[in-house]
Write a structure and sequence with these properties.
The protein has 3 domains: 84 residues, 2-Layer Sandwich (Pseudouridine synthase), CATH 3.30.2350.10; 133 residues, Pseudouridine synthase, CATH 3.30.2350.10; 66 residues, PUA domain (Archaeosine Trna-guanine Transglycosylase, Chain: A, domain 4, Roll). It contains 7 helices and 18 strands. The chain is an alpha+beta fold and 304 residues long. α1 packs parallel to α6. Strands 1, 2, 3, 4, 7, 10, 11, 12, 13 and 14 form a 10-stranded mixed sheet that branches. The protein has a 4-stranded mixed sheet with strand order 15-16-17-18. Strands 5-6 form a two-stranded antiparallel ribbon.
Length: 304
């Protein structure tokens, strides 16, 4: 059985994102399964899992903005930047005021430079940073630009701070917690993290692990699977004739009525969805200004 689509999974604490993907692969029998952005093992919330041909859109969904609720503990610094790590420093945070905290949080709005934590899934010469960290090897990491779109203070009861963060992909909330502690002068680490939203997908409509396991076991998983194109609703959509459909399937660049680079109705990133006359998603196309044609970037097979 082939399954093409996307699941909005409510990741439980204590499971890695890889373990969730492996379980979905086992439950579904679909060998092509992947997620669109890692959550730490103890973090919970939205984990977008793509199945079958849905994996072809994972790279686009991974770029979506994320929303988190994070609880930060002041006065503790760990090697992982969260409470699961080894404590390397303790400080008294009782002198921190709400005015200081508010001012520091405001300084993180907009585009900032952030150093990824050593305990992360990023690679250095083919090896995961966390593997090197576990071996006692520290690698210098270059700061990366990320965008903090919104940062709100939800609660403050010393030494605990709860914030809500809307941010670009690639943002490490653990690094954000560590940096907040640095600026406050008392240190801090991430205590709890919940991903509330990942692009199109929200925690309110996510499916918990036991439910999706039962759904695959008893054959009603179709109620929870999202069509491949559903999170791409903001992309321009075109319907093509049979000749154009064949050209797309053969990977040929093509012209469309909307292919002007200055057309107002084009998606801002010059990408669009192509459908057959009977409504099936054929491909995702991207605009190539050098040849002034649309190129099939991802092509889909109708397996229904």
């Amino acid at each position: 059985m082939s399954i093409d689509g996307i699941l909005n999974i409510l990741k439980p604490a204590g499971k890695t994102s890889f373990q969730v993907v492996s379980s979905i692969r086992r439950f579904s029998g679909e060998k092509h399964v992947g997620h669109t952005g890692t959550l730490d093992p103890e973090a919970t919330g939205v984990l977008v899992v793509c199945l079958g041909q849905g994996t072809k859109v994972a790279e686009f969904l991974s770029k979506d903005t994320k929303v988190y609720e994070a609880e930060i503990e002041l006065g503790i610094v760990t090697d992982t930047y969260d409470v699961s790590g080894k404590v390397i420093q303790r400080c008294d945070s009782s002198s921190v005021t709400i005015e200081q905290l508010t001012s520091i949080l405001e300084s993180f709005h907009g585009e900032i430079e952030q150093v990824p934590p050593m305990y992360s899934a990023l690679k250095h010469k083919g090896k995961r940073l966390y593997s090197l960290a576990l071996a006692g090897i520290e690698i210098a990491r270059k700061p990366r630009k990320v965008n903090i779109i919104r940062l709100d203070l939800l609660t403050w009861q010393s030494p605990y701070v709860t914030i809500k963060v809307e941010c670009s992909s690639g943002t490490y909330i653990r690094s954000l917690a560590n940096d907040i502690g640095d600026l406050l002068g008392c240190g801090a680490c991430l205590k709890k993290l919940v991903r509330l939203k990942c692009g199109f997908f929200s925690i309110e409509k996510s499916i918990d692990f036991p439910t999706i396991k039962e759904a695959f076991k008893y054959g009603y998983w179709q109620h929870f699977i999202h069509p491949i194109d559903e999170p791409l609703v903001n992309w321009r959509a075109v319907i093509v004739n049979r000749e154009t459909e064949n050209n797309i399937k053969n990977g040929r660049p093509l012209e469309l009525k909307t292919s002007s680079a200055t057309s107002d109705d084009l998606y801002t990133e010059k990408k669009c969805r192509a459908y057959s006359a009977d409504g099936h998603l054929i491909a995702l196309l991207h605009w190539q200004p050098d040849i002034e044609k649309w190129h099939p970037e991802k092509v889909f097979t109708n397996r229904s």
